[in-house]
Automatic annotation (TrEMBL):
Naturally occurring in which organism (per UniProt): Stutzerimonas degradans
Localization annotation: Cell inner membrane
EC top class named in words: transferase
Key words of the record: Membrane, Transmembrane, Transmembrane helix
Matching SMART domains: GGDEF (SM00267)
Protein name: diguanylate cyclase
Membrane spanning residue stretches: 50-71, 77-98, 110-129, 135-159, 166-185, 197-222
Gene Ontology CC terms: plasma membrane
A Pfam cross-reference name: GGDEF
Leader peptide range in chain numbering: none
Keyword Secreted part of the UniProt annotation: no
Enzyme Commission code(s) on record: 2.7.7.65
GO biological process: cell adhesion involved in single-species biofilm formation; negative regulation of bacterial-type flagellum-dependent cell motility
Taxonomy, superkingdom: Bacteria
Amino acid sequence: MTALIDLLRSRLTTLLPSELKSSELRHLLTPVGHPMLLCQRRAMMIVDRVRLFAFLFAVLTPLWSIIDLLVFDTPLWARLAGFRLLACLAFTWLLLFYRPSGNLFDAYRAIAILFAIPTVFYIASHTLLGSYQLAQFSAVVGAGYAFLPFVLMAGLTIFPLTLVESLVLGMLLLMAQALAGYLSWATLNWPSFAGAFWLLILIAGVASLAGMSQLAFMIALVRQAIRDPLTGIFSRGSGEEILRLQWDSAQRTGSPLALAFIDLDHFKAINDNYGHEAGDAVLRDAARSLVATLRGSDSLVRWGGEEFLLIMPDTDLQQAHRALARLAGNGLGVRPDGQPLTASIGLSERLADVAEDYRQLLEIADQRMYQAKSGGRNRLHGHAEYTMGQPVAAVLEG
């Protein structure tokens, strides 16, 4: 049984885009556990495309009234024009007043509003047209209103969505189609309705695959853009963005936020005596050792050269010391001569240090790291409430 599961997994892996790692397959299925920067970029792209979609509908929705005027009686045209005007105003509001914030729930709300507007318009117009006896060309134009759910379902393909997100939105559109059929029960052509419903399900499946494909390439691109190519951890640019986001979150919730600035001791001597390849190997080993101590919410950043920044959200000074105790217990690796690799660490915390912004919090940790270096290296320098300027092992054992 295990062999069969492994075979199926390997076959499914071959269907993924070549840029996507097999371990990232779960990110295509559900938004749970997505990296913070992926969530932010995906949220901004969704809102941007919602606004693009809203612009298109805001322009085209009222223009169709010209066609309605040519084929429908004035009372029917006036009521349809009223529906179109309301829909146009709603699309215009979405376009003008909804801005990307990087928050995924805001993106969900934007896409929900976008699809709710034409869905309500479809149900209202479908019910209204069902109460009129249409003939010849007016019947053909009236039948064209029934294609709106297909347009909406196809519109899902422009968004980078997980399978769960696509299925939820697809189900809502299918439910709207079913509701429209129920409201026109007496005059419904069941064979035609069943065929259209089945076609809508097929389009939903294709839209789900298209959304997952977009998301797969976005995952690969974001990973390449935010990772340091040597160590595989976050690069400085993405680290600054993560720090800003974590600071904003800590400000909203009043929670602590700790930073540890880690500088490898005497690293220049490794490059001078053993070459840059040996230095690169030491950096990779140190990064792996640091990553092994992290919690799921922590972020490790290569700040530059042999400097690392450890971002610890929801972590006060005492918890940060425990986290650094795990780091010291695991060790950072060894130097090419077999000696243990050590580091000078500066620690700061948002609440204890009364930092005004994330830049000041970073500056405090940076200054304390230099104090640890000038105090003899292999030291942790933190807030005065705790031991400071002592060797790392002594601080953490104490």
